[in-house]
């Protein structure tokens, strides 16, 4: 029900502030001594509420009209009641910042400045002193629409970026499914066709020549073993993730999000087992995903160092940092992967701003497992 009275997307941030502002406005107007009668005050308050309600829901020309009406009402209240009524201009300054047109914002800002000028000249005994007193209020109210417009624009762009990332992830999943389908068709198709043909031959020979039928059955057994081996090879290929390829994949995703990646050390990657390299690659994937979603960074840095029997992977960005956020499922997953290989993970705020993820993994000095040919 309340979402029909007040926009749902603004309830959390603005509802309490607007309610407090309206309560104070009603109290100050109704209790202030002036030549205005009660009905005149109620009429101005009703007009103010109507202008506020229209500005709350609209983003087009009607928003500008509502803001101008609200500013005019506050000007009348400021002249006839008290110059302190100018403080409530913050309400319309905030709403003005959500206008789609920059021209509407410019006109509204000019109206706010004119409101302060008129009230300071007509209401006070000493206009100069009154102007100096309300100058900071006027400046902030004139800057606020620009700040709100930038914030709203950033939210809109972030929403579009998130949608683009989801589409990109869906596209990657589609490509992976198609790759798996191609591998299954190309690898197993011929072997399964062979098994089908041999089975038909064995069925024909079983009553005529048992020795030939037996030979065909032996061929079927050999082909089945070959098919099983091929399935194992495919599964092994699907499970293994190259760290170098993952870094290059992350580079493309980060570039799409407007983040430049600088990588060092991955060209001289130490020899790791398939499990070790896959775990590191998955951690790099999770870390870069978090950077895209939360960091608001412009640059990202990935460095791989080897010291003794340990490999150290550092993923850093120049974004907003942790900001007191609790570790989510992504960080927990990285910790579990490192813990399973007796490694460690640390996530800290960087000294110059941003976040640093450090992966430390012990590895055995061994040749990487050879994949079946």
UniProtKB/TrEMBL annotation:
Catalyzed reactions per annotation: ATP + protein L-histidine = ADP + protein N-phospho-L-histidine
Classification via InterPro entries: HATPase_C_sf (IPR036890), HATPase_dom (IPR003594), His_kinase_dom (IPR005467), Sensor_HK_TwoCompSys (IPR050482), Sig_transdc_His_kin_sub3_dim/P (IPR011712)
Superkingdom per UniProt: Bacteria
UniProt entry tagged with the keyword Transcription: no
Molecular function GO terms recorded: ATP binding; phosphorelay sensor kinase activity; protein dimerization activity
Entry keywords, A to Z: ATP-binding, Kinase, Membrane, Nucleotide-binding, Transferase, Transmembrane, Transmembrane helix, Two-component regulatory system
GO cellular component: membrane
Enzyme Commission designation: 2.7.13.3
SMART domains: HATPase_c
Regions that span the bilayer: 12-30, 36-56, 63-91, 103-120, 132-151
Domain Histidine kinase, first and last residues per copy: 183-365
A Pfam family assignment: HisKA_3
Protein name: histidine kinase
Organism: Paenibacillus campinasensis
């Amino acid at each position: 029900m309340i979402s029909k009275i007040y926009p749902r997307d603004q309830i959390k941030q603005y509802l309490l502030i607007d309610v407090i502002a309206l309560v104070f406005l009603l109290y100050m107007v109704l209790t202030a001594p002036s030549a205005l009668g009660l009905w005149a005050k109620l009429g101005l308050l009703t007009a103010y509420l109507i202008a506020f309600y229209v500005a709350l829901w609209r983003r087009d020309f009607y928003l500008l009209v509502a803001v101008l009406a609200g500013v005019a009402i506050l000007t009348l209240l400021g002249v006839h009641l008290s110059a302190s009524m100018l403080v409530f201009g913050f309400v319309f300054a905030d709403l003005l910042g959500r206008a789609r047109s920059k021209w509407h914002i410019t006109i509204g800002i000019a109206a706010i400045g004119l409101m302060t000028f008129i009230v300071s000249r007509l209401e006070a005994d000493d206009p100069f002193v009154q102007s100096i007193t309300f100058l900071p209020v006027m400046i902030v109210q004139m800057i606020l629409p620009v700040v709100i417009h930038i914030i709203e624009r950033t939210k809109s762009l972030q929403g579009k970026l998130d949608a683009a990332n989801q589409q990109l992830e869906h596209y990657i999943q589609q490509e992976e499914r198609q790759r798996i389908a191609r591998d299954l068709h190309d690898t197993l198709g011929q072997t399964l066709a062979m098994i089908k043909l041999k089975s038909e031959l064995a069925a024909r020979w079983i009553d005529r020549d048992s020795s030939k039928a037996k030979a065909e059955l032996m061929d079927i057994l050999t082909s089945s073993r070959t098919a099983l081996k091929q399935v194992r090879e495919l599964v092994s290929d699907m499970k293994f993730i190259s760290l170098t390829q993952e870094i290059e994949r992350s580079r493309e995703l980060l570039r799409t999000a407007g983040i430049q990646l600088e990588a060092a050390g991955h060209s001289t990657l130490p020899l790791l087992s398939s499990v070790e390299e896959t775990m590191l690659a998955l951690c790099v994937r999770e870390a870069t995903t978090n950077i895209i979603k939360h960091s608001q960074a412009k640059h990202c840095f990935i460095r791989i160092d080897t010291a003794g029997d340990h490999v150290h992977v550092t993923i850093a960005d120049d974004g907003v940092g942790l900001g007191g956020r609790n570790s989510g499922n992504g960080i927990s997953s990285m910790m579990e992967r490192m813990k399973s290989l007796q490694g460690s993970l640390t996530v800290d705020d960087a000294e110059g701003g941003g976040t640093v993820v450090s992966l430390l993994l012990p590895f055995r000095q061994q040749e990487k497992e050879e994949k079946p040919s």
